[in-house]
Structure to design on (244 residues):
């Protein structure tokens, strides 16, 4: 009886999911903990794609100066710490069906009715039910049927602001973006990382996900609803050990 309180505490802890707050909404991650904030706080090497600005006396009389803040300036993200918009519009579907049917049969028979009278002599000495005609009779057959199908349909439409966290030596931009939205006790998270070419960024300072190399897109969440959709650790441990 003295061990009942300890067992009750262990049972309660086993039913809980680590990291899930009890009685309150999940906390946001600190916006200053990501590499995008560090990129904004560090002066990067300017890599403007526009020609250098004109002298001040010429610039005052012209609408085109080459400056990013001018009327016709190019405001696309190009330097470390700049922000651009990533457009995620995934509408993929795939359907695959395979069928396999295979069969094989074989038979072998060997008979030796006459060999200088040896089979007849052996026939008399064999136990009841045994015979040398035929001496060997083998047969085999196998059949295999298999069928498989895959049906997948994914649709996702999102937009997230990403930050240029590094400019590689060849001019390719490394981007990273995070977005968190909390509704009641459920926190939805969107993470985007990858590498883009400056030429693929549109005049609206946007880039689509299919132009991001080594793209890593994660859309999920944590909170009360996500906890209910996950089996408890005791069940996961049992499923990983039990062979059936």
């Amino acid at each position: 009886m003295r061990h009942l309180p300890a067992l009750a505490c262990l049972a309660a802890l086993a039913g809980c999911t680590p990291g899930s707050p009890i009685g309150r909404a999940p906390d946001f991650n600190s916006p200053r903990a990501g590499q995008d904030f560090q990129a904004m706080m560090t002066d990067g090497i300017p890599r403007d794609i526009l020609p250098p600005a004109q002298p001040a006396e010429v610039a005052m009389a012209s609408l085109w100066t080459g400056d990013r803040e001018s009327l016709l300036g190019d405001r696309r993200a190009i330097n470390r710490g700049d922000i651009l918009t990533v457009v995620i519009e995934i509408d993929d579907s795939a359907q695959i069906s395979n069928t396999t049917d295979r069969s094989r049969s074989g038979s072998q028979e060997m008979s030796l009715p006459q060999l200088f009278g040896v089979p007849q002599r052996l026939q008399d000495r064999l136990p009841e039910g045994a015979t040398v005609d035929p001496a060997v009779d083998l047969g085999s057959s196998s059949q295999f049927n298999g069928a498989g199908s895959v049906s997948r349909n994914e649709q996702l439409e999102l937009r997230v602001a990403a930050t240029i966290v590094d400019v590689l030596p060849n001019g390719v931009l490394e981007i990273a973006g995070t977005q968190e939205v909390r509704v009641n006790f459920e926190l939805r998270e969107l993470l985007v990382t990858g590498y883009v070419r400056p030429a693929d960024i549109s005049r609206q300072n946007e880039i689509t996900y299919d132009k991001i190399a080594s793209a890593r897109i994660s859309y999920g969440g944590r909170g009360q609803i996500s906890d209910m959709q996950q089996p408890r650790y005791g069940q996961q441990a049992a499923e990983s050990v039990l062979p059936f």
